[in-house]
Amino acid sequence: MRPISIGNVRIAHPFVQAALSGYSDLPMRRIARKYGAAYSLNEVVLDKSVLQKGKGQKRILTNVEEQDQPVGGQLMGSDPNDFAPAARMLADTGYNVIDINFGCPVRKVLGRCRGGFLLSQPTQALDIVKRVLDAVGSDIPVTVKMRRGLDDSCESERNFFAILDGALEAGISGVTVHGRTVSQRYVGPSKWAFLTRVKRHIGNALMFGSGDLFTAKACLDMMTETGVDGVTIARGAIGNPWIFRDCIALANNEPLPPPPSIIEQRACITSHFAESRNHHGDAIAGRLMRKFGIKYSELHPLKLEVRGAFIAVKTPDEFQDVLDRWYDPNQSYPPVIRHDGTGDLVAAGASITSREAAG
Description:
Layout: E1 4-6, E2 9-11, E3 15-17, H1 26-34, E4 40-41, E5 45-46, H2 47-52, H3 57-61, E6 71-76, H4 80-93, E7 97-102, H5 107-111, H6 122-136, E8 142-147, H7 154-170, E9 174-178, H8 192-202, E10 207-210, H9 216-226, E11 230-233, H10 242-251, H11 262-280, H12 282-296, H13 303-311, H14 316-326, E12 337-339, E13 345-347, H15 354-357
Parallel strand pairs: 3-11, 4-6, 5-6, 6-7, 7-8, 8-9, 9-10, 10-11
Antiparallel strand pairs: 1-2, 12-13
Helix pairs in contact: 1-11, 4-6, 6-7, 9-10, 11-12, 12-13, 12-14
């Protein structure tokens, strides 16, 4: 494990919490940092929302705290005229890096010519990159998030490399590449072999890999197999902030920590819940934490029952009731067991070495 730099922004290690729409708000970022994340990105925000101070701006664009740095602000949109001033506003808000989203596969986003759609429009995409660099590049680094193409066609691959090469030539400080196409959305495997090709193509330029990173072992494997400089952990970090702690342990050739006990899970969820209530207020926190609770339930030994309980939550009081019932330190539960990424099961209280975890 070694520190890496995104332009003039130095981060302690290469394991990053990705931008997650509807998830990676300030409370989630705080929890991720508590368990080891050294750099994270805010949930993606539309350029027009920034400029118009639209709905949700306060939730997403609250001034960046010192404890939340370094943090990247991810922007999405379609009009180059809006991207540049929005990027400038994010920079002035306190974000340390501006990340341009050319990867979102959501149909509504594509239908509005945003996100992954721009991988089919190299001229427009590069116009956005250059304008953002002109607006903020002298102050803070600019990075780009991409999928490996709109689809599997040769034209999509040509467009991908045209955008990648043009953006690097223009002066971006790094790129994140997801190994799925836009048309795949989240279905099917992420092609790590493509990440290997891209890293060889760009040489020493900074590259993060993304896709199918649900365990610490997968994160280390991606770096070893593809040569990427770091990884951005997306869905694998929702309800599992311990993945950052685990990555650090494996990278340092230390024993993989056991899965979090019921007591540890309760402490983490309680802290996350308190952060969310404090930041958003009860009306929003109750709704937001329900979906986090569903993700946290994956680590509970009675996950089906706990998942169902979280699904039924509508208010903060009901969320607390689920915690009190299913994460009671005085109750006896089956052992907490998880897959460690090798096909083996690991129980809380057990430990395996990083060499064993790496196979």
